[in-house]
Structures are given as structure tokens and as C-alpha cells.
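ESCALATION

Customer reports they have been waiting on this structure for their group meeting. Please prioritize. Original submission:
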Amino acid sequence: MRVNVFGVETTPLRFDDAIRTLEQWALDASGRRYVSTCPVYTLMMCREHPDVMRAVNRADMVAADGMPVVWMQRKLGASFAERVYGPDVMQTLCTSGDSSIRHYFWGGLPGVPEKLADTLRAQNPHIQIAGMHSPPIRPAESTPDPEVVERINSAGASIVWVGLGSPKQDRWMATYRPVLDVPLLIAVGAAFDMLAGIKSQAPRWMQRTGLEWLFRLQQEPKRLWKRYLVYNPRFIWLVLGHLWSHRRS
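Update from on-call: job pushed to the front of the queue and completed.
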């Protein structure tokens, strides 16, 4: 089932169902799938950049990473929809998922993937880590880099966790998915920093009430001001327009 939220074909899911599906996909050696996690910012980037819209809409799962997206899914008929939050997905699959899954961490600043791996090993000594890499900070490649393809394919991973930030990570997956042998790519944004303990996560009550953006803005105002103070109001305007048009009809 897909629910179109302002042009983005999102996948409404219960969290536990999402985890079961992702675990099955990771263990499907013949599979070639990728997953976008979609908060408000990613959704607005899709509307602003046609290539991002194509990349996200081609994903096998477009998970609602933010509560406003979940609320729109429910409003549009998927009453069962829950938040499928990148850090929670990563934490669950890395610490209590099938022990035969081999994880690869692609993203983060230098040293972050290593710290993430150490943290997850402490939580789950049986985790299988196929590899990790902190790529250079640069725009997403328009064509695959053969060295990147060889590095990842030779690792024998089941899942590549992509932590490049939105929308770069969505562009990256769309570019590399056709040439990677890994069954599953999952974009998780800031999950690397959060699970490694470099950045704090918002309290659960702020996450549940859609106020996580305020917590993150307080942490990184210079980097995130535009994301939240420009694109959040634009999203609210779209929602109001949707509600008004349905009220009139």
C-alpha cells in the first residue's frame, strides 16, 4: 500500500511490520531493494528537486520518519500508520535482528562509523559488521564510482546503512542501487551520530508530539535553521491547503 503525500508515494506501516519486512529483505540474497526514510524535510526536497522525487518514489519502501508525515498518512486513510524512525530501525535491526545479517555503515564524518560500530558491538556482541566507511564530503555522484562499488560489493553485506543526510542519501541510493550486490540499502540520516552518542535524541514525548524539530534546532541552529524555519512552514501551508480544499468539496 502506498499513500501519496503531496506527490511522495509513502509506505504507511506499523513499526513492527516494517522491521519484519526489512529483515526479510536483508536476508533475500536475490533482492535488490532500497528504503528511503521520509521526514518533512525530505518530502519538501522531493517537491523542490525532481531528481529527489524520482529517487524517493522509486524506493521499495518510503517510511514515514517524522510524525507530520504519519499524521498525513492517517488523514489520507492509513489509520494504522506509525512512525518508522531511522535511528529506531537501525537500533532494532542491529541489536535484536537476525544474527546472520551483515551490516555495513556508509556515511558520517571521519571516526563516526567506527564509534557507531563500537557502540553497537557493546549492545550486541553477536552483531556481524561487514565494513564501514566515511566518504568525502561532496555532492552525490551522478554515476557510480567503480572503487566504491568494489569496496561495498567485496564486503558481502546484507544491509548497507546510508548516513549521508537528506536528500544526498536518496540520490546516492538511486545511483548505486543498480550496481551493488547488497540485498538492501537503508537511508537513516542522522542515526549514525545519534546511535554513536555524538548527538542527543529528542525525548520520546517530543518525538511523539512532532516537536523533535525544536530539539534539533536548539542543538544545531546554524545548520538546521533553514530546514525547520523555512520548510516546516511550507509544509504546514500545504496541509492547510489540503484541508481547505477537502472542506470545500
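Sent to customer with the following note: The two ends are 25 Å apart (CA to CA).
Escalation resolved.
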